[in-house]
Amino acid sequence: MGIEVLSNCIGCGKCVSVCPFEAISMVNKKAVIDLTKCTLCGSCVVVCPVKAIVIKREVSKKDFSEYKDVWVFVEFGDETDPLKQGEIKKVSFELLSKGRQLADKLKNKLCAVVLSYENKNYENILKDYGVDRIYLVEDKNLLPYDTEIYSSVVISLVNKYKPSVFLFPATYKGRDLAPRIASSLYVGLTADCTALDINSDGLLVQSRPAFGGNIMADILSPNSRPQMATVRPNVMKIEKNYRENLEVIKENIKINPSLRRVKILKRIKNPSSSSFKLENAEIIVSGGRGMKTKERFEVLFELAKLLDGCVGASRAAVDSGFIDKKHQVGQSGVTVNPRLYLAFGISGAIQHIVGMKNSDRIIAINKDPNAPIFGVSHYAVVGDAYEIAKKLIEKLKQSCK
């Protein structure tokens, strides 16, 4: 891998101003790159108007002995909400917990990548989750989130420190940022993983649903580093693993504001969509084809309201037109792990079970005593799902009087 300035350079100087490490200078009206400073972040390639700067890459099996450690991109709360801005999201702790397991198998360090406008004592928070090292970048230009700026910073870190594994949450930010980084580094990326492991060859086994959730695919990246994956929220268990000696490496990367090509003038939230967060719900009342009709399915909304929960559904219920797809739980829907999961009339196809099996308490109601859902439930009720839901509503209303 290397970088080259072609003869068609026009000496405009745009590459000089955007280089985070001041590795480019103008000599005789031509760009000259100091290879001792260049980290191949690609910022200069993006802004060059005549495509005179080229990063050369070779796709071949090579020695990856210098690549080590498991990295996790730490994501923060919604920057449009002052109460959550700067707050580490739950999915980051899930990835760190899994990352700790992977790092132990590889006998590597677990590293957290933290990009923030200011450090809010993150080292004392992250040391509880098995983190050995934090790569911290603080800059006011990191807020609000911008793909160009974030990818430039992360690529610089990757090229400088060379991680073996790099995990991102499969959130709006993670799904936007990870592909940009993978494309720039010319490495593979497995999206929407539901399981991760290390095989006997020390490779990251990235498992994800395929063909509409009908099969699970195990994907390897033997010929490139880092091995990158985005991971679904709510599929990994959070486990605390305190680390006393946490190392913090603060990187002073110069961020040029001109990389921000989009200016946000105003944000408008849709009240109906922002209030519905199935993946964050503590109680979920879910229904399947066993509810029989859309009208009978409506009783679950009343029950969920009484329990202060959300309504979920199986794919069969969605396909039957009982409810909108945004309520679907499973491999091709949302993965959840509430404190309580009530399954009414759900048979228990493997695609659905994968999306809810990590719930703390599962209560299944089905008229078929041999329904597969009973195999993962903590409590099983054999009977008509609709009638039992109505009786439960009556009991809850009586207790509220």
Offer a few descriptive terms.
elongated, Alpha-Beta Plaits, seven-stranded parallel β-sheet, Rossmann fold, five-stranded parallel β-sheet, 401 residues, alpha/beta
Describe this structure as you would to a colleague.
With 401 residues, the protein is of the alpha/beta class. The protein has three domains: 2-56, Alpha-Beta Plaits; 70-259, 3-Layer(aba) Sandwich (Rossmann fold), CATH 3.40.50; 273-400, TPP-binding domain (Rossmann fold, 3-Layer(aba) Sandwich), CATH 3.40.50. It is 26% helix and 23% strand. It has twelve helices and 19 strands. The protein has a seven-stranded parallel beta sheet. β2 (24-27) and β3 form a beta hairpin. α5 packs across α6 (172-185) and α9 packs parallel to α12. The termini are far apart. The model has no long low-confidence stretch (mean pLDDT 89).
